[in-house]
């Protein structure tokens, strides 16, 4: 079997007496969507934050593309290709959708300042940024300030920014949240194709999306992974049904 792109070993994170991450090991293989599900407060976001570098685990290891990235900060991990979808609050909401994606393209190109051309006329930035916006279906909305986009469009913009950074793995934390049934269906189709570009670790509460997309599912309860398996294995697992899936299974 191909080497995992991302490999997490025995990760632990306590908040005071709370074991938010309790000895978690999982991996992300090339081409797969690995969904991470579990009840509210199970520790899914905390885990994603540790992988992206936003918070530091108490112990354990995180290997990305064969390299231990545990000592690296969030920006250094992103530069290595660990792409997370940014919360819209971290975007410049007065900037246009296009400008926001251009900033990511610029970061991916490794240059932060250009003195010779006004940035909005720099085709080495506008063209790739427009291509990414086209892919997520936002090309027609490119010139609008991010603040004027609908909720669903903003989620797509977050994904566009992750894409523009040319990631080798995606970390998505509830991309379907607030999308509505049509939007979720749309995004499900998009994520389905995206796995060919880079594998996806997907935190998601929308079980229709998870069952449609996931190659494997890990179930997190009270900071612990209680099961990892295919959709069928997880749906049949009695402990998972008891702890989480219930009527969804
Ligand atoms: N910075 C923090 N300080 C203290 N406790 C925290 C902190 N961040 C998260 N927690 C707690 O850690 C636990 C896990 O939270 P987390 O947000 O990771 O869960 P989650 O599975 O993502 O939940 P949800 O599905 O509701 O988003 C919760 O009990 C939460 O209250």
Automatic annotation (TrEMBL):
PROSITE patterns: ABC_TRANSPORTER_1, ABC_TRANSPORTER_2. One of its GO terms (molecular function) is ATP hydrolysis activity. The keyword Nucleotide-binding applies. Residues 6-247 form the ABC transporter domain. Pfam families: ABC_tran, BCA_ABC_TP_C. SMART domains: AAA (SM00382). The keyword Transport applies. GO terms for cellular component: plasma membrane. InterPro entries: AAA+_ATPase, ABC_AA/LPS_Transport, ABC_transporter-like_ATP-bd, ABC_transporter-like_CS, BCA_ABC_TP_C, P-loop_NTPase. Keywords: ATP-binding, Nucleotide-binding, Transport. Belongs to the ABC transporter superfamily. This is Branched-chain amino acid transport system ATP-binding protein. It comes from Neomesorhizobium albiziae.
